[in-house]
Amino acid sequence: GAVVSQHPSWVICKSGTSVKIECRSLDFQATTMFWYRQFPKQSLMLMATSNEGSKATYEQGVEKDKFLINHASLTLSTLTVTSAHPEDSSFYICSATGLAGESGEQYFGPGTRLTVT
Amino acid sequence: GQNIDQPTEMTATEGAIVQINCTYQTSGFNGLFWYQQHAGEAPTFLSYNVLDGLEEKGRFSSFLSRSKGYSYLLLKELQMKDSASYLCAVKDSNYQLIWGAGTKLIIKP
Fold first, then answer.
1. Is it the case that residue B72 has pLDDT exceeding 90?
2. Coil, helix or strand for A48?
């Protein structure tokens, strides 16, 4: 149990275009989903936290108008990178919590590698 | 400010034992997690400690001392597949996870 999927697993896009990444909890209802970004050889950087049906909470320094997050249901959250630039190239990972009675551990999706050319 | 410290890199030999330390200074404490992350992959959960003491799970054990703000992950009978980064993360008083930069563990035959 506790499987989180992401789609796509990798994407290449041109500078100035937008890319949508989906994060799904397959066998549980995720009350909270998290979006992370990870540059090579660096640690995870939390971008935002989203709860189903409410606006996402963005970390300091993360542009909410550039990284649009939608958490429309208890099993789906999307991250849209708008007007992507080469510096947005990174590994984007989502995670989810929500299983009752557990420690609040986050279950991670497999990640999406974004390359902006 | 909030801070998690881990060694950047460690090297160990196949079959041996290695201990990865983590010290933390956070606003409140609601548990400490260890995750394993292979290169190019997402992290996977290894252990969770909220009370002082040792939690053992197969070849992996995790220890916590809240008074010292200290934890370690102990890996026994090392295998080549254990080569990965090991991330320490602390849940603070707001239940937000604060992540360490990770320790890259290199296993040599």
1. yes
2. strand
